[in-house]
UniProtKB/TrEMBL annotation:
Residues 590-864 form the Protein kinase domain. One of its GO terms (biological process) is cell surface receptor signaling pathway. ATP binds at K618. The keyword Transmembrane helix applies. It comes from the Eukaryota. It comes from Oryza sativa subsp. japonica (Rice). This is Os01g0365000 protein.
Length: 927
């Protein structure tokens, strides 16, 4: 007996000496130490008894309780210890109070040896009535948190609050950050009126890392949710705090106190003093970095050649025991009814493993097991922490499915490595990627083989011919492949006997008849179904199109125009609301070859209606409410105007995204094109025609200003908006910017809008649109007719010149003749030209009040036109008389030419045929 005691003393003394020298103890040195207390296992550096623990890690086992409880200091109860640096412990404070007396109670907690710190964010939970709780940083008066708990009627609290998280009624919580090693708090009682049943309520405080659900019984009992308060626990991380960090411990004067064993890794504590030790990723869960030779490397994969015999549903490289898995990360933990992967508390259940696909299917741990159950909120963080430093596992986008690889090297590198995992014949290497990121490689059997590519022989041939009805003919299995040929003539494949058998003659005919009938029935059914579906689809599309068109009709102010047209019988007779189908067919679905021109407010297309009328269709360029309002404005104005020199509106359509207007087709284009078109094909424009065009334009504008039912200001008078038909009759167009006013108004204030070069300076500066603004723009057209120059043209120096300024300056310099068109000078006499120039100058006066009205302009042009006509008639009469006196001098050709001078219609027709030929185009459109 004495010898045994002496032997134990020597072992303890050697262990104590070993620790004093700073060398990590071995498992042999600690074999005499207690390994558990009750249900809790104990691993070094923690321990009970001399020589069994590292300084600062001594535990106390209270054997007076059943079962025994393990304590670290006075207030910290250890409920579980993990060998890789974590413990699960409870921190509880029972505050004894005196009924009827209000007081303030101060409590504090400090990790024994300051080697523990909270692992994640936790909560300080306080259960009690009428209390204020103040949380302070340890050894300071710096407030870190505050909460209040109050109570109401006991029955009401039991009905409304039981089973719900703390909300300040009966209990309250204060959040604690991770890494806390000490704190203190004060509880101050407040005078509060509550039910008699709560008169003996107690105050309890504890730490928790999960949601606490309140129960009114907690106020009167020493238990929380039917458990003792000590059962409420949280995770703490363990650190060696006798040195500042790893560098100090490894290189300092106290190097003998270095806690990490050989083969382990030292890790600094984040933002606080101390360090911890960890084993490499390939080590196993039971390895201990604080013991001598405590970290064991994972078994090299090339030495593994056996399968898990007892657990046939767990294929290699996964395994349950040491030596049965390729690496530590592939080792699973089997409980009574679950297979787990990971380390507590970060564990999940393995439901299935697919070696061929390289996938592991995971699920939450059943909460009825000893492992911790995680809520939905914690699942994402859980998955991120399992194998957080492993590159051989990659969480795929599908929740609960993990991709895995054998090693994070390429197939090419692995194939040249002695540790190449694909050791079976007929196996191949497969790269593992996720979102184009490479994670490593895995193995699979080659096509035509099945089994486990990580064992030898693992991949065996697949007998495809043994699968029922896999080949509906003659099947021959080959190594890694198979062949399938159809049944010979006169035989057919019997799925019951799974072979080819002879076909009887009557059966053959019967089968042909059945086949024909089935084919006809199926074909007819498919045809009928296709027809029905086509009809339904067309009706559905037609209904959708009607809804869309109706929506566009309302958006484009179609209802407003509809009421406007229907309210006036004369307008309803001349203006039609067209359907979208008809206006889409007219310009060949708005083919770009049908574009006639591009105005300030839309594109104009040429088209032919169903009644063979050739029309111009105007389509808005952009879908904006302002553009739609301008189109509506144009329809409203044109529908009320009836004048031979104003373009006629046939109708409109508002069923499309952009509104459409339909006008009469004007064949000879615009005055601008004729005056300023290509000089190589430039048409001659006689002096008489220029006067007549200006007169007809003035007549249309005078009608708008004075004779229309409502005075209308055009606002965009320019040569590009003056159209000429086959007879060169003038048509004023483009009323998108026009404004109508009441009879008693003289002007209207608008946003300045118009074309540069034609814009009235007075309107530009004041924003007041008047009838004289159109007069100014008309004056610019008169100068264009006189000079055949653009409103903005290039002078001899190549500089841009304003035509109006140039014209007025030439009047002052008396050099007007130099800028006149040669044809005007040749055909017009000096008096006519002077009158035309004088009228243009009057229209271009700077002040609007100094300009004539359009009616006055029309009168002066009528007088000028009459004088020119009379002169032409007199000249024609003289030619006729001369021919009668001297018939031999005049032949028929010269007579015809002279007579034509006095016939306006004939001369204009001749000019039209010279400039524009429309017959061929019209014929091609009507085909």
């Amino acid at each position: 007996m004495m010898r045994l005691c002496w032997l134990l003393f020597l072992v303890a003394a050697m262990a104590t000496l070993h620790l004093a020298l700073g060398v990590p103890p071995s498992a042999r040195d600690l074999r005499h130490c207690p390994t558990s207390c009750g249900d809790v296992n104990i691993t070094y550096p923690f321990g009970i008894g001399t020589g069994c623990f590292r300084p600062g890690f001594e535990l106390i086992c209270n054997t007076t309780t059943k079962p025994p409880k393990l304590f670290f200091g006075n207030t910290t109860e250890i409920s579980y210890q993990y060998p890789y640096g974590y413990v699960r412990a409870s921190v509880v404070f029972n505050i004894a109070t005196t009924p009827g007396l209000l007081g303030t109670y101060s409590r504090s907690w400090q990790a024994p040896g300051r080697v523990l710190s909270t692992y994640t964010t936790n909560s300080l939970v306080i259960v009690g009535c009428g209390i204020d709780v103040y949380l302070f940083r340890s050894h300071t008066n710096i407030l870190q948190g505050y909460c209040r708990s109050e109570c109401t009627n006991m029955a009401l609290m039991d009905k409304k609050l039981s089973g719900r998280p703390c909300n300040g009624i009966g209990c309250c919580t204060i959040d604690l950050p991770g890494g806390v090693r000490a704190f203190r708090f004060n509880i101050t009682q407040r005078e509060e009126t509550h039910s008699v049943a709560l008169g003996n309520s107690t105050i309890k405080a504890f730490l928790s890392d999960s949601q606490f659900y309140f129960n009114t019984a907690d106020l009167l009992s020493e238990k929380i949710n039917a458990n003792t308060i000590g059962a409420t626990s949280l995770f703490f991380s363990v650190a060696i705090t006798d040195q500042l960090n790893c560098s100090t411990a490894q290189l300092g004067l106290n190097k003998t106190d270095y806690a990490c064993s050989d083969g382990s890794t030292c890790v600094d504590q984040r933002n606080q003093r101390g360090y911890s030790c960890t084993c490499p990723a390939d080590s196993f869960d039971y390895d201990n970095p604080y013991l001598l030779h405590g970290c064991k490397q994972g078994i090299p994969i090339q030495f593994i050649a056996t399968e898990n015999k007892e657990y046939t549903n767990i294929p290699f490289p996964f395994g349950l025991e040491q030596g049965c898995s390729a690496k530590k990360k592939f080792q699973l933990n089997c409980t009574s009814n679950q297979t787990l992967i990971g380390r507590p508390p970060m564990q999940m259940e393995v439901t299935s493993i697919s070696v061929d696909e390289g996938l592991v299917y995971l699920d939450r741990v059943d909460e009825n097991t000893t492992a911790r159950h995680f809520t939905d909120y914690e699942v994402d963080r859980l998955l991120e922490n399992i194998f957080m430093d492993d590159t051989d596992f990659n969480l795929s986008k599908v929740y609960g499915v993990w991709k895995w690889s054998v090693s994070n090297i390429s197939c090419e590198t692995a194939n040249n490595n002695t540790a190449y995992a694909c050791i079976s014949d007929h196996s191949e290497c497969v790269p593992v990627t996720q979102s184009n990121v490479y994670f490593g490689y895995r193995c699979k059997c080659s096509p035509g083989y099945k089994g486990n590519p990580y064992t030898r022989p693992g991949c065996t041939d697949i007998d495809e011919c043994s699968r029922p009805n896999f080949c509906k003919g003659i099947c021959k299995n080959r190594e890694g492949n198979y062949s399938c040929t159809g049944c010979p003539y006169g035989t057919y494949f019997d799925p019951v006997e799974t072979k080819c058998i002879p076909t009887q003659p009557h059966e053959r005919r019967h089968n042909i008849v059945i086949g024909v009938v089935i084919g006809l029935v199926v074909g007819t059914g498919v045809l009928a179904l296709s027809l029905v579906l086509t009809i339904l689809l067309r009706r559905w599309k037609r209904g959708i199109q009607k809804k869309i068109r109706r929506a566009y009709f309302r958006k484009n102010k179609g209802l407003v125009l509809e009421r406007l047209i229907s309210s006036d019988e004369s307008v309803a007779h001349s203006t039609k609301i067209f359907s979208l189908e008809e206006l889409e067919r007219a310009p060949d679905h708005f083919n770009s070859t049908r574009i006639l021109g591009r105005g300030g407010h839309g594109i104009v297309y040429k088209g032919i209606l169903s009644d063979q009328r050739v029309v111009a269709i105007k389509r808005s360029k952009i879908v904006e409410q302002g553009e739609i309002d301008q189109f509506v404005n144009e329809v409203a104005i044109l529908s009320q105007i009836i004048h031979r020199n104003v373009v006629k509106l046939f109708g409109c359509c508002f069923e499309s995204e952009v509104p459409l207007l339909v006008y009469e087709f004007i064949s000879n284009g615009t005055l601008y094109d004729i005056l300023h078109g290509d000089m190589s094909t430039e048409c001659s424009l006689k002096w008489d025609d220029r006067v007549r065009i200006s007169l007809e334009t003035a007549s249309a504008l005078a009608y708008l200003h004075c004779a229309a039912s409502i005075p209308i200001f055009h606002k965009d008078v320019k040569s590009a908006n003056i159209l000429l038909n086959d007879n060169f009759t003038t048509k004023v167009s483009d009323f998108g910017a026009s404004r109508s006013i009441s009879i008693d108004e003289t002007h209207v204030v608008t946003i300045v809008q118009g074309t540069f070069g034609y814009l009235d300076p007075e309107y530009y500066h004041t924003g007041q649109l008047t009838a004289k603004s159109d007069v100014y723009s008309f004056g610019v057209i008169l100068v264009e007719l006189l000079t055949r120059k653009k409103p903005i043209f290039l002078n001899c120096s190549g500089e841009k010149q304003n035509l109006c300024h140039y014209f007025l300056q030439s009047l002052r310099d008396k050099t007007t003749t130099d800028m006149l068109d040669s044809q005007v000078v040749e055909e017009g006499n000096l008096g006519e030209i002077d009158e035309f120039v004088s009228l243009a100058e009057a229209c271009l006066r700077l002040r609007g009040e100094d300009r004539p009205t359009m009616k006055e302009v029309e009168s002066r042009l009528q007088l000028l036109r009459a004088n020119i006509t009379k002169k032409i008639q007199d000249e024609s009469q003289k030619n006729v008389e001369a021919m009668q006196l001297f018939p031999s001098v005049y032949d028929s050709t010269s007579f015809t030419q002279n007579v034509d001078i006095g016939m306006d219609a004939d001369s204009l027709t001749q000019l039209a045929s010279t400039c524009h030929t429309m017959e061929q185009e019209l014929v091609s459109l009507t085909r």
